[in-house]
Amino acid sequence: MNAIGWIRLAVIGAAVGALELASRSGLIDHRVVIAPSEMADALVRLLISGQANGQIALTFGIVIAAVLISVVVGFALGAAIHALPRVRQTLEPLFATYYAVPIFIFYPVMIAIFGLSVIPILLMGVLTALVAMIIATLNGLDRIPRVLMKVARVHRMGRLQTALRVSLPAAAPHLFTGIKLAVSYAFIGVIASEFLLAPAGLGRIISDAYSDFDNRRMYALMLLLIVVATLVNMALHALDQRWAQRRGIVRP
Amino acid sequence: MTATQRATDALIILALMLLAWQALHQAVGATALPAPLPTLSYLAKFLPTARFAANAWATLVSFFYALILSYALGLAIGIWMGIHRLSGAVGEPILISLYTLPKVTLYPVVLLIFGLSVSGRVTFGAMHGVLPVALLTMNAIRNIPPVYLKSARALRLSRWQTVFTVLLPATLPEVVSGLRIGFSLTLLGVLLAEMFAAKQGLGFLIINAMQLLQGEEMITVTLVLFVFAALANMLLLAIDHRLHRRV
Amino acid sequence: MAAAPAGRQIHAALAGVTRTYPGAPGNKPVHALGPVDLELWRGEFFAVVGPSGCGKSTLLEILAGIQQATAGTVTFEARPVAGEVPQGLGVVFQEDASFAWLTVWDNAAFGLRRSGTPEAEIRRRVDDSLAFMGLTDFARAYPAQLSGGMRQRVCIARTLVLKPRLILLDEPFGALDAQTRLLMGDELLRLWRRTGATVLLITHALDEAAMLSDRIGVMSARPGRFLDIVETGWPHERNSTIVGEARFGEITGRLWNHLRGESLKSLGYAGMTAE
Description:
Largest sheet of chain C: 6 strands, mixed
Strand order of the largest sheet of chain C: 6-7-8-3-9-10
Number of helices of chain A: 10
Oligomer: heterotrimer
Largest sheet of chain A: none
CATH class of chain A: Mainly Alpha
Shape of chain A: globular
CATH superfamily of chain A: MetI-like
């Protein structure tokens, strides 16, 4: 890790340390925020006790399902739209405005339609992530250098061959960006929905813990979410960096 | 693409959405999802009521304060991190991690600190909006081509002249993009807060209506918010495009 | 157009080839190329020079079968070329066409992999081709790690493995500096002699054309037509040192005489000629 990485670690450490001190010294009311060490302790005990494991598994299961669906469907739709320029032109304003609409306003409608089950939650996860994948697919396919398609013709490759062996690998970095976004957005969509209203799941038990004034449990689960979200994003980022480096793409 | 083509496309999208709505309504029934026409008539009745006005106003006030906070904080952080290279390098991954984090996980903390008050909703909204503003502003400043600064020196511009006649116009398009995204996310944050724990506001109305099985009110308020967000964004996009075109 | 001398076959030919693009709505169609007549003799090194925008690349792509001519016929080895790139034809493009996701070795093996050639044969031919292009040490590297010139060599190696009988090159050294270009020119000649293929080279560099080719086709400004075919008469065994000979200067001068006016035209200075 370079110097900047160390500085960053120090900054985060200092922030956590400050919170720890403030909480332990009574500067921050214990009923509002508990010390980070307590959060960690509460989390470990909770995981060991296995009380929340079912809910945790459920939520992560829904997130994974949402990611898979939005990536596969998003890619398919993106590829299809890319092949139909007129359709794309018509849909462009829709994509531009999609993420400007706070999608959670539709959550109650979905509950009204599907009832209070995991379906609306899964749907929210998919809908939040889907369009990001479509847009990333369109971008990726756009950016395939024209010359590579000519090379495919010189090698007398058919359309399927060209798509699989030239277009797909050429667009891969952008598609991976789409996958990264899909993961983030699916997470956000699922957790936020569970938090608002859900029969079960991580968001639900956090919300319950809040209502029950059970700060330890609440913060333990929040810590879990933060840690998992950060780790997953870091892992995807590291993968992205490695592949991008091999390709000579400069990633910020 | 001509203006008529664009208009026809917009109409096509609108028509498709209405058709999909109608089809979904027929599939699930009126209690779950009222049809477009009854919704529009309810809208006409509901919009002038005091109840709607009060809640819309509550949301608007929260949103307004949250937006100011997002923009002010976001710009300040972004400018600092853009100019002060080290802070930028250290802070960027942190900001990006926060951006991808489901901030709703931090909402209980906000609630514990602020209770169910307006400040809580404003803070939560600002938490969402500050990040894109900061990140894009930072990027805008970093991306100023060094040759601009060299040219300003060669033209012997004063500090203020450089800032106002070179740096500001150079960074404006990207900063405005950040403001546009910040607008949408701040709105999202405020509405989420209202939906979860509030006694007023348009977000509250939607959840409340759903829980009371008042399908028409639920879908009407949803529609109002949808149209507001879409129109506001189109306006901001138009400004965004106009700025980018001249770059 | 001189008829093929005795003993030389016509390898590929264009007859009356024209290319017109439909214009933007409300505009006239764009007449980009032609009518062009060209005969490539088997085993020769033929260069095409002309002002920018005259349609040289279009000519190459029509000959290769990547683009369709609006009128006229294209033949390769006496068979018509239409819509599909014929077997036995290789193309090297101006832009970097190396596959960023494959190693140099896999790039070179790309064409063979699909043809069902046995693995051992693939290995032999790829190793051979990489050795010929001086890329053996970089076989496991990725194109992003190489310079522009080396990436171009990867593309050439990829073309060579397929043993093409006609090699088309569209300004392959366009992005390289002058010295590298001269050296790559020598490489090209080596390649040409080694493979015995017919080579068509598109270039904007007159010295490059004059130095490398048996014959040079001079194209007019858009719509491109052949103004002249210059025969250089160089010996088969030649390299970049021929730039020292007097004849080199004559050839280059002759090319420029044609092209000066055409280039002015393409730059928009129609009517400015002998100034």
